[in-house]
């Protein structure tokens, strides 16, 4: 009789331990899930929806001013860690949070496997807009000054040459005699193609960028619309990914996607 009771006690203890273990595992998993959801949310970066994850670190903004087109995504991740998140849809770019409302967005060229490779563009922004071009930048400022000096008294000013600055970046420029209604671009979306736009309003006034190339149209004096196209199988411009309204110095508005 005593042996039977001992066996029952052993079974009871084993069952109790198993139940306790299961409850503990469920509790730990739930807590970890809650903690992760607390550290991950959606915010606004450059006027676009962006994923955000809390990363416990401090990054000196000067670090990004030392980067150029030879720096790779892998090197940056090793030096300062992974990005805080990714902003946008269509053209999704990683970013690092510098302070409460300051972010550094980086575009990269892609390697043969479609992975991030070398730096194409770096810029500083807040929740609503681009504040400053970090890379490439120096050439656009030099060019602007030189064109002003070389064209004093010319009403076309810096646009008389074959280069200008668009959204703070050096851009090729060609004058085209036409009038384009800004509303035209607000009707475009990711089904609109480069070929379609060429047929409707003609070729762009020029292009700018390093790694990621933007085409742009001149709308008025110091007002431009830049367009980023995805690539086709033949590596030619295909459908729209991003449309922005900008001046020579900065981006004013994201037309698509909104």
Give the count of structural domains.
2
Alpha-carbon distance between the two ends: 78 Å
Over the alpha carbons, how many angstroms does the gyration radius reach?
27 Å
Give the low-confidence spans.
Answer: 138-158
Going by helix content, strand content and strand pairing, the class is alpha+beta
Number of strands: 14
Give the strand order, joined by hyphens, for the main sheet.
3-4-5-6-7
> Approximately what portion of the residues adopt beta-strand conformation?
25-35%
Shape: elongated
Helical content stands at 25-40%
For the sheet with most strands, the description reads: 5 strands, antiparallel
Q: Count of helices?
A: 6
Order of helices and strands: HEEHHEEEEEHEEHHEEEEE
Question: Roughly what is the average pLDDT, rounded to an integer?
Answer: 79
Question: Would you give an account of this structure?
Answer:
The protein is an alpha+beta fold. The protein has two domains: 95 residues, no CATH class; 119 residues, no CATH class. It is 29% helix and 35% strand. The strands form four sheets. It has a five-stranded antiparallel beta sheet, with no helix packed on it. The longest helix is centred in the N-terminal third of the chain and has 38 residues. It is elongated. The N and C termini lie far apart (78 Å).
């Amino acid at each position: 009789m005593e042996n039977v009771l001992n066996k029952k006690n052993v079974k009871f203890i084993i069952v109790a331990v198993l139940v306790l273990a299961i409850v503990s595992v469920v509790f730990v998993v739930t807590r970890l899930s809650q903690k992760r959801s607390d550290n991950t949310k959606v915010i606004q970066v450059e006027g676009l929806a962006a994923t955000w994850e809390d990363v416990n670190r401090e990054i000196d903004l000067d670090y990004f001013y030392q980067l150029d087109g030879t720096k790779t995504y892998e090197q940056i991740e090793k030096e300062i860690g992974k990005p805080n998140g990714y902003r946008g849809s269509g053209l999704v770019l990683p970013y690092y949070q510098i302070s409460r409302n300051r972010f550094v967005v980086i575009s990269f060229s892609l390697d043969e496997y479609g992975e991030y490779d070398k730096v194409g563009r770096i810029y500083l922004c807040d929740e609503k807009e681009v504040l400053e071009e970090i890379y490439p930048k120096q050439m656009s400022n030099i060019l602007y000054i030189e064109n002003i000096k070389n064209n004093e008294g010319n009403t076309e000013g810096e646009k008389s040459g074959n280069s200008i600055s668009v959204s703070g970046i050096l851009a090729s420029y060609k004058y085209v005699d036409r009038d384009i209604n800004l509303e035209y671009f607000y009707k475009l979306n990711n089904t609109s193609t480069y070929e379609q736009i060429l047929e409707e309003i003609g070729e762009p006034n020029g292009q700018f960028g390093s790694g990621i190339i933007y085409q742009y149209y001149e709308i008025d004096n110091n007002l431009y619309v830049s367009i980023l196209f995805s690539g086709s199988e033949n590596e030619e411009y295909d459908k729209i990914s991003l449309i922005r309204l900008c001046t020579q110095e900065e981006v004013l508005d994201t037309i698509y996607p909104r």
